[in-house]
Design a protein that fits this description.
Elements lengths: L1 H22 L16 H4 L4 E2 L13 E7 L13 H12 L8 E6 L9 H22 L6 E3 L10 H8 L7 E5 L7 E5 L8 H13 L5 E5 L16 H13 L2 E6 L6 E4 L4 E4 L8 E8 L4 E8 L1
Parallel strand pairs: 1-5, 2-3, 3-4, 6-7, 7-8, 8-10
Antiparallel strand pairs: 2-11, 5-6, 9-10, 11-12
Helix pairs in contact: 3-4, 4-5, 6-7
Length: 305
Amino acid sequence: MQHEVHVLKKSLFAAAIFISALLCSCNYGFPPFLFGEEEVESRASSALVLSGKNIPQVGSGSKYSFIVFTDSHFGNSHIARKEEAFLQIFKSLLKNPDPALRPRFMVNIGDTLDGGHSSEADFFNATASRWIAAANDALGINDFKVYSILGNHDLYNNGWETWRTRIYPYTSFYTFTLNAGGKNNFDFWFLDTGNGTLGANQIEFLENAMAASARPKIVFMHYPLYAGGIFYFALGDVTERARLISDFARTNVKYVFEGHKHDPLNYDFGNFKEVVIGAYLEDKVFGLVTVDETAGSVSFTRMGY
């Protein structure tokens, strides 16, 4: 009996230490218990189709470029930020002698907010406003876009409420089609994997919509499909993962861009390529993606700042 009491005390003590460690972080709160109603099934039952002024201005040539980045963790105070360094690199790209290589929009693929707080959204928006102003000035436009999707950190502390009112385009699952004058228009798909899964509603909608379009496609998601085989960093449901790989291979997907794993990674599935960008904050990297509508091709260059 005394032995059982001793074991119980040790177990309770270990549990108390674990809970205290989680609760001591005011930024994260107690993440596993703070999603509440923020489940992917309720957020992403169907995709919002962007059109009109919500589509990026890419010019009239058949080639255009954009920047993709991830894991910027606005609000994290443990890693030094180098926003000025990134801004200077960005401005230099906007002056590229080849107009096709000047970024025409940005895609931010998750963990934008370190703890899901509104103050972090304000920090991100203030920073993004500087990118937007620089791009509008250099490109001679007035509506440069920064598109974002959810990561797991964005959902901490009931972060969905902050996200859907503060972070453009104020949704979690969306798509648009771009036409820059080439023969192959591209479909862009922005997926909600904030909970580590697409969920039944989203994947069914995605499969039907992608199968109905023969256009080449680019997909963005926070959780990787494969992540070099490290299961902790990939989509947790192996059946869902296999289903997506099959879907992407047969529906003319060219590239899948991902975050979450704070290390750069490239993986070739044959029909399409998977790229884990690496973390904007921790690794100081981002990507330049160039689309050639005439050739129906996509190229990717990872860059540092």
